[in-house]
Structure formats: structure tokens, C-alpha cells
Design the sequence.
């Protein structure tokens, strides 16, 4: 039976010889560890899932099945839940509201600390995240929007777009204000480094607890599976519901040119990101729950950080915005 593996094609459309093909394969695998490695891809394949490049991400989903063998313990669930909370806040407060929209200011040290936490989420680096999200706001729910459920359907908007050559790349021209920081560029280039460190630390923690506190009933494998794989995959799918579901289900308080909607359940799951129609109408606010009854856990966390002097200049919701809301 002939191999079903795609034959690499050069940008000119010619089939690459075996030596070039082997080099292409090596470079593609190297990109698992260094996104700075360039791989030429024919334009016709830019928007198709690159299964080889996406293999580690697929493997993380399969690793969640490890719960069958490692079992579960209260401490493993506490660690998994805690990591979900901390990392979701890093994504919503910093990757989104700070790096993407610059809705407040902070020190370089705090910026880097939360960039590190955000990088552990396996949602790529802070420059990639911000560059992609800024582009999304410019072309929301048009054919140029890579994850519009209206244009591309649910599955593609939820996960398919994330695994394509076009969307693996970081367009630094969209984030010149962030690209000037070498530490952020490093996190973006070696976006697998921090997740690997977190996974190793969790495994070591499980081994340590197994020896010093056996009554907790945990182990290295259990802590790795629940604390890293399960927590990270749940975090990813919760985050991308804003792409796939918050443009389909919910209420529209503001008339925007896109299909964004407010959804209270998604707001609770993603710490305030579910107030998506609010955000698309006025993305320049640090707050996405515009009214007191719109629960926005990220906003509360930022207010606490502001009180502690860790962030400053939180941008409020202007009065004129509220006057534009539907009654």
C-alpha cells in the first residue's frame, strides 16, 4: 500500500527530492522545540492541519487517558484545579487584556512573571497569542478570521485553526510594542520549554509526596497526569469556547459588526471572557463585565493586584459605552 504521508512540495509547486524531503521532516520535528526553525509550506497547504507538527498536542489529549492507570486523589485534584485557576487568570488578565489590548500597565518583572505562567498553558507564547488576537479583532467573523464559527464551523473554530501552518507562525509586525522585549521573544520561540519544566516539577512533586506523605495517596504519574495533562487540556478547551461558542450562543447587548455574544456560563468558566459582546464593542477596557451583576473574576483579580501596587492604570468602561447598550 502506498504511503499516505503528504509529499512535501516546494513553494514553486515542484515535488521535493528525497534529500530535501528528509530535511523538511527534520525541520518540522525541530519546530516542536524551536518555533524559529522555518519550514516552507505550499500555499495550498497553509490552512490544512499539519498533523506532524501537531503530534505533541494530540499526544497531550491521549495522555489524559492515563487517569485510568494512575487513579485519583484529593491532592491531585487540588493541584489540577489550582493550576487551572492560576493559569486561566494569566491568560485572561495578561495574555488577553494586557498583552493583546494593553488595558493596564505593569512592571517588566510582573509582565515577565505572568508571561511565564501564560506560557505554561501550552497556548503558545505571549507574542503569538497577542498577534493572533489583534488580527482576530480586525477581521472578526469575516473569511479572514481563522476561527469564526459562522464562516468555518464549530470544530474548525474550536481547534482546527490552531493546528495549521499559517496559524503556527507569529506575525511580529502586529506586536512591535511587545517584540522589543528579548525575554518575551525567547518564550515565544521556545514555547515548549515552560510546559516541560512544569510537567517535570509536577512529576517530581508527586514522587516526593509519595515518599514523605504516603497517606495523600498520590504519585509522580498521578500528579503529572492530573496536574499537567488533564488541567492543561481542560484549560485549553475552556479558553477556545470563546472562539467557538461565544460567537454562537448568548445575548447581544451591543450592535457590533460581528456575531459576538454575552454568555454567563462561559463568563464563569473563563473568569469573565464570556462577556464577549461587551468586549467586542469596547475592547479597550480592563473590565469585560460592564455591570456589577456581570461576574468578571479577572477584573476582581486585577483590582486586587492594583491595590497591591502590582498593576496600575486599569482602564474603566467609559460612560458613553453604557449609553449605547440595548435597553
Sequence:
Amino acid at each position: 500500500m502506498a504511503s499516505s504521508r503528504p509529499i512535501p512540495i516546494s513553494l514553486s509547486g515542484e515535488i521535493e527530492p528525497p534529500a530535501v524531503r528528509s530535511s523538511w521532516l527534520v525541520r518540522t520535528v525541530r519546530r516542536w522545540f524551536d518555533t524559529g526553525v522555518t519550514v516552507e509550506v505550499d500555499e495550498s497547504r497553509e490552512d490544512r492541519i499539519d498533523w506532524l507538527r501537531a503530534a505533541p498536542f494530540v499526544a497531550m489529549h491521549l495522555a489524559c487517558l492515563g487517569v485510568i492507570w494512575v487513579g485519583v486523589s484529593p491532592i491531585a485534584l487540588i493541584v489540577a484545579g489550582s493550576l487551572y485557576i492560576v493559569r486561566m487568570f494569566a491568560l485572561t488578565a495578561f495574555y488577553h487584556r494586557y498583552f493583546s489590548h494593553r488595558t493596564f500597565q505593569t512592571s517588566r518583572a510582573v509582565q515577565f512573571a505572568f508571561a511565564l505562567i501564560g506560557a505554561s498553558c501550552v497556548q503558545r507564547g505571549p507574542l503569538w497569542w497577542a498577534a493572533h488576537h489583534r488580527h482576530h479583532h480586525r477581521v472578526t467573523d469575516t473569511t479572514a478570521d481563522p476561527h469564526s464559527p459562522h464562516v468555518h464551523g464549530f470544530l474548525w473554530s474550536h481547534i482546527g485553526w490552531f493546528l495549521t501552518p499559517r496559524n503556527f507562525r507569529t506575525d511580529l509586525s502586529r506586536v512591535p510594542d511587545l517584540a522589543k522585549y528579548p525575554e518575551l521573544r525567547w518564550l515565544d520561540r521556545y514555547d515548549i520549554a515552560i510546559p516541560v519544566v512544569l510537567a517535570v516539577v509536577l512529576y517530581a512533586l508527586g514522587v516526593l509526596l509519595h515518599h514523605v506523605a504516603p497517606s495523600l495517596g498520590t504519585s509522580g504519574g498521578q500528579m503529572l497526569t492530573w496536574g499537567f495533562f488533564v488541567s492543561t487540556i481542560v484549560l485549553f478547551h475552556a479558553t477556545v469556547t470563546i472562539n467557538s461558542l461565544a460567537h454562537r450562543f448568548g445575548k447581544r447587548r451591543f450592535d457590533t459588526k460581528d456575531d459576538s455574544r454575552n454568555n454567563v456560563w462561559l463568563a464563569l468558566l473563563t473568569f469573565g471572557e464570556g462577556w464577549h459582546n461587551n468586549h467586542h464593542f469596547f475592547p479597550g477596557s480592563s473590565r469585560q463585565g460592564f455591570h456589577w451583576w456581570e461576574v468578571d473574576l479577572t477584573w476582581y483579580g486585577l483590582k486586587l493586584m492594583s491595590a497591591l501596587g502590582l498593576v496600575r492604570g486599569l482602564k474603566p468602561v467609559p460612560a458613553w459605552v453604557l449609553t449605547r447598550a440595548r435597553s
User: Anything to note?
Assistant: Residues 18-244 form one domain. The chain has a mean pLDDT of 91.
